[in-house]
Structures are given as C-alpha cells and as structure tokens.
Amino acid sequence: MLPQALHLPLRAHLTRLREWFQEERRRGAPGVTLPHALARKYPQAGVQWGWQYLFPAAGLCRDPYSGEPVRHHLHEKGVQRAVQSAVRRAGLSQPASCHTLRHSFATHLLEDGYDVRTLQELLGHSDLKTTMIYTHVLSKGAGGVRSPLDRPVGAAPADRGAPAAQK
Description:
By secondary structure, the chain is mainly α. Helix content is 41%, strand content 7%.
C-alpha cells in the first residue's frame, strides 16, 4: 500500500537511484547479492536494474555465497537509528520507534472505520487475536464520536470496501 502523497517523491528517488545505478555500472562497481542458485542461473542479474534495491546500502559487503564484494539493501538497524535520531531532534517526550509507526498506522485505520480483518491482512497477522489489541483505541464512548458535519468541506469518507447498498 503506497500513499498517493509518496508517489512523486518515490519517482524522484527512483530517478536519482537509476542515475546512481548507471554510474555504478560505468565504474564497474559490483551488483547486488543473489541467492546462489539464482546467481548461477542468471550470472548477470546482480548488475541489472530490475534486481536492485529500492534502498541500497551506501557501502559494499561480502556476498555470503561467493565471498565477492556486493551491495546489499539498507540495514534495518540504520532505519531504526534514523528514527531514533528524528525522535531526539523533535524533542519528543514519549519513546517512539519504527514499531510505533506500525501501531500508529493500525490505530488510524481503525479510527477511520476500516474493519479489523482488513487490518489483520495488512499487518500480516496470522491470528486475529493479535490484531484485536489495536481495538482498545476505539473505546472512546459517545463523547469521542465526531459528527460527519465536522469533516472538512469537500472531504468524503474513504471507500472502505463496503457493498454499494451500505454506502
């Protein structure tokens, strides 16, 4: 699921990445790591655009299969450190992490009226009980309900997959 707001920034990122990728090829830099059988079947795949990572690591590492230098994807620890740095710079008093973003995503979807089964699928939970922990945010009571008249002018409710008769 890719937000509309990220389409243009992602296209710009891909344009910059493609230029960088082409420069890497001109310099003869190594490609990405591939599973051993795939690397044998398609020896040039690691240097083809379709196999490149959306968020490549800045440096090279050793391929676990061949021992050769290769580029890998950005490590999750790097993303976690970037989030922690942003939390500190923002001066947040509450702890926050990548997992906090996952919880926020789930909570906002439930608050917007999406059903818990849809949320279960999006989060990849095999057991609905795991997803149900997010429903605690919905116990606002009558005082927490916002009138449809308070929506911004022109804002329509999101299409939540309900049959036409229920819309």
